Structure formats: C-alpha cells, structure tokens
Amino acid sequence: MRRSLKAALLLLALGWAGAPGALSTDKDQPINIEADTAEIDDKKGISIYRGNVVVTQGTLRLDADIVTAYTPDRQLQKVVAEGNPARYKQRPDKKDEDMRARARRMEYYANTGQLILYEGAHLWHEGNEFSGNRIEYDTRADVVQAAKAPTGKERVQVVIPPKGKNASGAKKP
Predict the structure, then answer these.
(1) Residue 122 CB contacts under 8 Å (≥ 6 apart), including other chains
(2) How far is CA 145 from the centre of its chain?
(3) Bigger pLDDT: 12 or 90?
(4) Count of H helices and E strands in the chain?
C-alpha cells in the first residue's frame, strides 16, 4: 500500500507540475498533499482525495474539495479537481506573476496539456483575465478559449490591460 500511495502521489503532482510553461524547478520539489481522506485503488488506477484538499509542489498550489487522479498503467492521464470553487496557481518560467485559475470543476489532461475549467471559470494569465462558463487553456500552445453558458446568460468576459499593467489596472511589479 505504501508503494502505491507514493506512486499515486508522484503521478498526481508530475501531471500538474510537469506542464509546459510551469516553473521548471517545480518538478524537483517535494510533493505535499493534505486531505481529510485518501482512497487509492492501484488496480483501477484511481486516487481520490477528499475534504479540504491542498496539493503543493514548488510554486504549484491546488485547493479543492475533491481531487481525483486517473493513472491507468501508472501513467497520469487526467486530474479532476472539484470545489466551491477549486483554485489553482503556479508560477511560469521567466514570469513575474502566477498563472491562476478558479472554477467549480477543473480537468487537466496530461497527454495534451489541456486545462479545462467549468462553471464560474476564471483564468488570470500574463496580466490578462478571462471568465465564462467554460475556459480551455492549452498549456503547450499557450492558447485560451472561453465559452458562454449553454443558456446564454453568462457571457465570456476578457480584460486586456494596457501594456505594463495587470488586469486590475495596477502597475506590474
């Protein structure tokens, strides 16, 4: 059990911290996961962490109510974070500020580098701010796509600040 727990924790963190654009030294930092409960099924390749889950590794921090890692054949396939809201942040290489995200549900796909935010989605990236019902961020191509809610009531909002300022209008550090 101890070996499979260690493998599940490692795979969970490598999927997030190993994403292109993340601070390159994050993957060399210790992985810390805190939760009220942890359920690891090595045969099914699923690890579920519940209750005030906090995942940290270097500059990466993920806060959620539930985090589920899908690791068939000991290869990270997908991480799902759920919360009210779930929150994610990480410092990209050569950047002065963190990339941050907030949503009720986040899905990260390790094979494509896609981060998809659902319901109340909000993404802060390189001084820009995106919000909508669904936001897709391709970490490899550095492309953001946002969409309104199916009902059409929650439209996409994008804030692009003047050069040298962040989305709130304050000067960048």
Answers:
(1) 101, 102, 103, 129, 130, 131, 135
(2) 16
(3) 90
(4) 1, 10
pLDDT, one tens digit per residue, over 138-155 is 877 878 888 877 776 778
Q: Do 17 and 89 meet the contact criterion of CB atoms below 8 Å apart?
A: no
Residue with tokens 């390189």: 126
Domains of the chain: 2-159 (2.60.450.10)
Kindly report the number of other CB atoms within 10 A of residue 134's CB atom.
19
With 60 as the cut, is the pLDDT of residue 80 above it? yes
pLDDT at 7 over 50: no
Q: How far apart are CA 153 and CA 173, in angstroms?
A: 36
- The pTM score is 0.78
Q: Which two tokens stand for residue 48?
A: 């579920």
Please choose, from the candidates 31, 24, 20, 22, the residue with its C-alpha nearest in 3D space to the C-alpha of residue 56. 31
